[in-house]
Design a protein that fits this description.
The complex is a heterodimer of chains A (about 425) and B (about 475). By secondary structure, chain A is an alpha/beta fold. Chain A has helices at about 10-15, 120-130, 175-180, 185-200, 215-225, 240-250, 270-275, 300-310, 330-335, 340-345, 350-355, 405-410; strands spanning about 25-30, 40-50, 50-55, 65-70, 75, 80-85, 130-135, 145-155, 160-170, 235, 260, 280, 310-315, 375, 390-395, 395. Chain A is built from 12 helices and 16 strands. In chain A, strand 11 (about 260), helix 7 and strand 12 (about 280) form a beta-alpha-beta unit. Chain B is α/β, with parallel strands linked by helices and about 475 residues long. Chain B folds into 2 domains: about 10-45, no CATH class; about 110-415, TIM Barrel (Alpha-Beta Barrel), CATH 3.20.20.140. Helices cover about 25% and strands about 20% of the residues of chain B. In chain B, strands 1, 2, 3, 4, 5, 14, 15 and 16 form an 8-stranded mixed β-sheet that branches. In chain B, strands 6-7-8-9-10-11-12-13 form an 8-stranded mixed β-sheet. The N and C termini of chain B lie far apart (about 50 Å). In chain B, about 55% of the residues are buried. The chains are: A alpha/beta (about 425), B alpha/beta (about 475). The interface between A and B is large, with 50 and 54 residues.
């Protein structure tokens, strides 16, 4: 009756496939390029040796190329989830399966979250099958306003999934950060100032003592690239007043680069954020006054920030970021429903996150020279009823198979005589 | 073994004739007993609904695609609202004299959304410590608490849900306890008191919880239950006490009605609620994730002679659709939440569609102040995933997952949840196909009264909390 969804041989085939030199042509679909080429109504994307080599309507397909027929669907760059914890958490309530935060560590800024990334985590496959090929991962804050360093990963599940470490430092300057720092916002900002002084004084001020005013020697060293403006400082902030304080902090600490994660009230200070060149990682669905930091949260926030010229990438904060990061398409689609142009919304989950992390010339677009991260969809990717039918990462076709699809296949035919545990 | 699937929508008022405090036994101060007979009966409805529908006009919504909530889809369909009720659904309806006629061409008309699992008001926004009113986590059996006593009618989440087309919602206590307390079904209207929101004559419900939550909460305190087996023992001990309590009241009533000299049992609020379940007046809404746990609970209900109306969350419902159907128990589920604890680890995105397709009663639920704002999209995701798995489910059939099925499981399907003549005119006019991400509710009627209009700020409620705040009036 109902057929199993996945070919049983997919795994075996993939494992014998050559890792390089395979050429794929993704054809017969509406190509969203995120470049000056715009949307190509019926185009082809040619991928060779891991990268895109041609995009257009009259692409010559060489002999020996494997053709992936989009069947009239959509062909897009892989999605880039700009702020997630995929691969860090398997089961959130089981501490033994999580590497997101380190409450009892003596270190803070020095913690490199990519050391905890598990490419074999079961949520990686389901995230990839949702079209997400790249993600920034971040550490959770614990005993210190500094959570540590975030990094960038792909969702291939391969051993070399981490493609950049030390991409940003994450710190909490919201109400919860104030609480961590001792009970007030002044305490949190004083701590941040002291930490910056420690980093600026590294290594000299640590010649006699391992401890600085705020940071130890190891953490101060790790903060140095932030102080020098080479690595952005991502601050978790929602309240408008705190955002203004962050803008002032950036101005007083040039060349530091601030980014905002949260930003529930960012639309109230949109012009100042735009002028300061501070990007916002925003969940466009947040609209409830869930705390006194986010009283002005609104579904119109995304549209207002874009209109003011703020660089905005979309997160899935309200849907979680490790299990359902793939829902960024739904979040982006709702931004469109609330006034954001489709192209703008789609960029906010592809090219814009890549640009924010300094990778905009390699990820987030379909153009010659970009990584072969290509997703084929059965419809508009921002529609909740659409789904990918094929996902390429670094020019390799990936398996559309996860623990969830295995469970589905086991239970889809409830009247099968084979005992459940023997169905594989 | 076939059980009756649904409790009748019990008109609570019909069993409320109350009475007497013959010998001062009604000493608990409920104030609800009266003395027109000699038989003590405590009020089943001491906090009665004072809901009063707003003025309904006569409205003809013409030329839309109508999903009627019970499987039907009518192209170019009309819905006529008169006196707060649906008066006709069809094509080519005539506008009565004085009717407001709304052109729904290119748009969709559906019954209002019914969310069977919400904590709005009990865990309101902002979620500050003073607002944590959903779990009486002080002992594992608290059947005596009623969540309506925790609901803050000024929760801004109510109006956000209204903008998503939610016209009826069922508020539950949390799942810390084996017996969490009574739930309450509300009309999604702005009000000063919760009584003004209470759905008239909706049956009471009782929240129970399986699995990790009760055993974690109490196990961490070195108390029982600390395990799944402790959970089951806790339920059984409570049902034994409830059965005895029920027997004592039934014996007392029989004797008293026969004119014998009988003393009423001492009133116990906890056992009174459990007795209501055993008497079929209160519907069980039970938080359970795993298939094996649900199977245990269905045996438990058989042991004590009650019915589990709905399993909530039920992420493994797809593993036991046959058992659910046989027991007449429904599954209220998410589209794609899971993985956050071990008992949610086997969540699959096809759960709703597959459970439904394999013959059990299934529906969507939110359990979230965010999810409740877009239950149409949650159903769309479940429908899309189901179709990709090869299941044939129509658009009209799937709308039952957020309207008539939850209404049925709340015992109010004869009042709301579908577009049928005679039912309450709880209607949503969507800007397009409600299974599209880009569609939003344009207008929402509750009992025929226009209660939300996306294009008219005067028809957008703003709770007290938001007045004078920077986000006042923002959606």
């Amino acid at each position: 009756m109902m057929k199993a969804i996945l070919p049983a041989l997919a795994l075996a085939l993939a494992s014998t496939a050559p890792s390089l030199a395979q050429t794929y042509a993704v054809t017969n679909g509406r190509v969203v390029t995120n470049t000056d080429q715009g949307v190509i109504a019926d185009g082809t994307v040619l991928v060779r040796d891991g990268s895109i080599v041609a995009v257009g309507t009259d692409v010559t397909i060489p002999d020996g190329t494997e053709v992936i027929d989009a069947d009239g669907g959509w062909i897009t760059p892989g999605l880039f989830a700009p702020f997630t914890q995929i691969g860090l958490i398997e089961v959130a309530l089981e501490g033994s399966t999580t590497d997101a935060g380190a409450n009892d560590s003596p270190y803070s800024v020095a913690l490199d979250v990519t050391d905890g990334y598990n490419p074999a985590g079961t949520h990686i496959a389901s995230t990839r099958m949702g079209g997400v090929t790249r993600a920034a991962i971040y550490p959770s804050t614990g005993h210190n306003i500094f959570a540590g360093q975030g990094g960038l990963v792909n969702t291939s599940g391969s051993a070399n999934s981490v493609f950049e470490s030390g991409s940003f430092v994450y710190a909490d300057l919201s109400q919860s950060g104030a609480s961590t720092a001792g009970g007030s916002r002044p305490a949190a900002w004083a701590y941040l100032d002291a930490a910056f002084n420690d980093a600026r004084g590294y290594p000299g001020r640590f010649s006699a003592d391992h401890e600085g005013d705020a940071l130890n020697r190891f953490d101060a060293q790790a903060l140095l690239p932030v102080v020098r403006g080479r690595v952005p400082l991502v601050l978790n902030i929602d309240r408008a007043a705190d955002l203004r304080r962050a803008i002032r902090f950036q101005a007083e600490n040039a060349p530091v680069q601030i980014m905002i994660e949260g930003g529930a009230e960012a639309w109230l200070v949109a012009d100042e954020l735009a002028a300061a060149g501070i990007p916002v990682l925003l969940d466009p669905l947040r609209n409830l006054p869930a705390s006194f930091d986010e009283i002005a949260a609104t579904l119109d926030g995304a549209q207002r920030l874009h209109a003011a010229g703020v660089t905005v990438a979309y997160t899935t904060l309200t849907s979680d970021g490790y299990y359902n990061a793939r829902l960024i398409t739904q979040h982006a689609g709702n931004a469109v429903a609330n006034g954001v142009a489709w192209d703008q919304a789609f960029r906010s989950i592809t090219l814009t996150p890549a640009e924010i992390y300094g990778m905009g010339d390699r990820y987030g677009a379909l153009a010659t020279g970009y990584a072969g991260d290509v997703v084929v969809w059965d419809g508009d990717p921002l529609e909740v009823m659409s789904s990918p039918t094929a996902v390429l990462i670094d020019g390799e076709i990936t398996e559309m198979d996860s623990r969830q699809t295995r469970l589905l296949n086991r239970y889809i035919n409830i009247t099968d005589e084979t005992p459940f545990a023997y169905r594989r | 073994m076939t059980r009756k699937a649904w409790m009748p929508a019990l008109a609570a008022t019909a069993v409320l004739s109350l009475a007497a405090c013959s010998s001062g036994t009604d000493s608990d101060g409920s104030g609800s007993a009266s003395s027109d007979t000699d038989v003590v009966r405590h009020s089943l409805d001491p906090f009665p609904s004072t809901y009063a529908a707003r003025e309904s006009g006569t409205t003809l919504i013409r030329g839309g695609t109508v999903l009627d909530g019970i499987g039907g889809e009518i192209e170019n369909g009309d819905v006529l609202i008169e006196n707060g009720r649906i008066s006709a659904v069809g094509t080519g309806l005539e506008a009565p004299e004085g009717a407001t006629v709304i052109d729904a061409t290119g748009r969709y008309v559906t019954p209002g959304v019914v969310d069977i699992h919400s904590h709005l008001g009990a865990y309101p926004s902002p979620s500050v410590s003073a607002h944590s009113d959903g779990n009486e986590a002080t002992q594992p059996v608290t059947a005596e608490v009623w969540v309506e006593h925790s609901v803050w009618p000024q929760d801004p989440g109510f109006e956000a849900a209204l903008a998503g087309g939610v016209t009826t919602l069922h508020i539950l206590p949390g799942s810390a306890n084996l017996f969490g307390g009574r739930g309450v079904t509300l009309r999604n209207v702005s009000a000063r008191t919760v009584q003004e929101m209470k759905f008239p004559d909706a049956p009471y419900t009782l929240k129970m919880a399986c699995g990790e939550n009760p055993s974690r909460v109490y196990g961490n305190r070195g108390q029982s239950p600390a395990t799944d087996m402790g959970n089951m023992a806790g339920y059984r001990a409570a049902w034994i006490r409830a059965s005895d309590y029920r027997d004592s009241w039934h014996e007392y009533w029989e004797a008293a009605e026969n004119g014998e000299d009988a003393t009423a049992p001492t009133r116990d609020l906890e056992l009174e609620t459990l007795m209501g379940v055993l008497d079929g007046e209160i519907l069980i809404q039970m938080h359970c994730y795993r298939a094996d746990q649900m199977a245990q609970v269905m045996d438990l209900s058989e042991e004590f002679g009650y019915q589990v109306t709905t399993f909530h969350h039920a992420v493994e419902a797809y593993k036991i659709p046959d058992l659910l159907a046989e027991n007449g128990a429904c599954a209220a589920v998410w589209a794609d939440w899971g993985g956050f604890k071990m008992e949610a680890y086997d969540a699959i995105r096809e759960n709703l569609a597959l459970t439904h397709a394999n013959g059990a009663c299934a529906m969507i639920h939110s359990d979230s102040d965010m999810g409740i704002q877009r239950l149409n999209q949650e159903v769309a995701k479940a429908l899309g995933d189901g179709r990709r798995a090869g299941l044939e489910i129509s658009d009209g059939e799937a709308w039952a997952w957020l309207s008539s099925n939850p209404a049925q499981a709340l015992g109010i399907a004869d009042q709301t949840g579908s577009l049928q003549a005679g039912l309450r005119a709880d209607v949503v006019l969507w800007s397009g196909n409600p299974y599209s991400t880009y569609t939003r509710a344009d207008q929402v009627w509750i009992d025929g009264a226009l209660s939300f209009d996306r294009r008219d700020e005067d028809q957008q409620p703003v709770r007290d909390f938001m007045l004078g705040q920077p986000g006042e009036g923002e959606q």
